[in-house]
Write a structure and sequence with these properties.
Helix content is 0%, strand content 55%. The chain starts with a strand and ends with a strand. It is an all-beta fold and 120 residues long. It is built from no helices and eleven strands. A hairpin with a 6-residue loop joins strand 4 and strand 5.
């Protein structure tokens, strides 16, 4: 089992920056890709960014050029650097970890979420 804990959310003015962190614990050897999702009020949860074990990344079109996902495998931590934040980025941000297809490893894990609020 993998446990995920997000941190770094808060209130920021439009144009500002935040860095989110997600620390994994438990059966971390089971983790393949890690990513960030977000859910704004009244909207569906959407993928923001994902990073594979080898470092390849993908981003939602809405955050390309502004957000950067990174990973420190030694610390079992994934980060999301968010620059030039916009009010529409306001959401609860969730960390996730995908499990490897290996005996003894479970499926996807989710963090509890961290609130990001961007004021106009």
């Amino acid at each position: 089992q993998v446990q995920l804990v997000e941190s770094g959310g808060g209130l920021v003015q439009a144009g500002g920056s935040l860095r989110l962190s997600c620390a994994a614990s438990g059966d971390t050897i089971c983790i393949s890709a890690m990513g960030w999702y977000r859910q704004a009020p009244g909207k569906e949860r959407e993928l923001v960014a994902v990073i594979a074990s080898g470092g390849s990344t993908n981003y939602a079109d809405s955050v390309k050029g502004r957000f950067t996902i990174s990973r420190d495998n030694a610390k079992n931590t994934v980060y999301l650097q968010m620059n030039n934040l916009k009010p529409e980025d306001t959401a609860v941000y969730y960390c996730n970890a995908e499990g490897k297809i290996v005996v003894g490893c479970l499926g996807r894990s989710w963090g509890q979420g961290t609130q990001v609020t961007v004021s106009s």
